[in-house]
Amino acid sequence: MHDLNRLLAEGFYEALASRDGSRIAAYLSDDVDWMSIGPVEMLSFCGPRRGKAAVMEVFERVIPAVVDITSYVTDILVVDGDSAAGLNRLSGRLHATGRVITCRLANFMRFRDGKICEYRSLMDSFAAVEEFIGQRLDFHQGIAPISRELMPFADGTDLAVV
Predict the structure, then answer these.
(1) Is residue 68 over pLDDT 80?
(2) Is the pLDDT of residue 82 over 60?
(3) Residue 151 domain flag
């Protein structure tokens, strides 16, 4: 089973890299428990999702409305029984600004009956926000609201201006 789960994890990461919705969906259980941990207020693809349909909406509608993913690379993959963990790098181009971004993700998944039934993803969200707005955040100088000028959103996206 351990070898099968390694193949499942590798295949899932390859599906993510392909950005092909049908390939991604093939790895998910119908009742998958999905959580991308990050600043939901700024990155609408973060947050909890329950079920394959809800997760696929993220890949087919939410993410493409914000960014064109150009690269998804797995640097580390560890599989232990019915669980796997990976360290990945994602790159893409923001629709609103044309800016190229890169962020690190740590993913944790659990398998049941040859499918991913639980998934957790943690991004370096501070660095991701800096990438999205195109400037460093310096909290020693105080915190100010992020304006539309710093983080413009493409028309038609569901991202809210903070």
Answers:
(1) yes
(2) yes
(3) no
**Does the residue 146 lie in any domain?**
no
The CA-based angle 15-109-159, given to 5 degrees, is 70
Q: How many CA atoms lie within 13 A of 95 on its CB side?
A: 13
**C-beta neighbour count of 15 within 10 angstroms:** 20
- 95 lies in some domain: yes
Which H or E run includes 23?
helix 21-25
CA 73 to chain centre: 12
Residue 22 lies in a domain: yes
* pTM for this entry: 0.77
CA neighbor of 69 nearest in space, from 41, 48, 88: 88
Question: Which of 56, 117, 103 has its CA nearest to residue 75?
Answer: 103
For 5, half-sphere exposure in the C-beta direction (CA atoms, 13 angstrom radius) is 20
Looking at residue 44, which CATH number applies to its domain?
A: 3.10.450.50
Task: Please state the domain count of the chain.
Answer: 1
DSSP state of 5: H
| Structural domain span for residue 94 | 2-141
Residue 77 CA to its chain's centroid (Å):
16
For the segment 89-138, what is each residue's pLDDT rounded down to a tens digit?
989 898 888 888 888 899 999 999 999 999 999 987 666 667 666 767 66
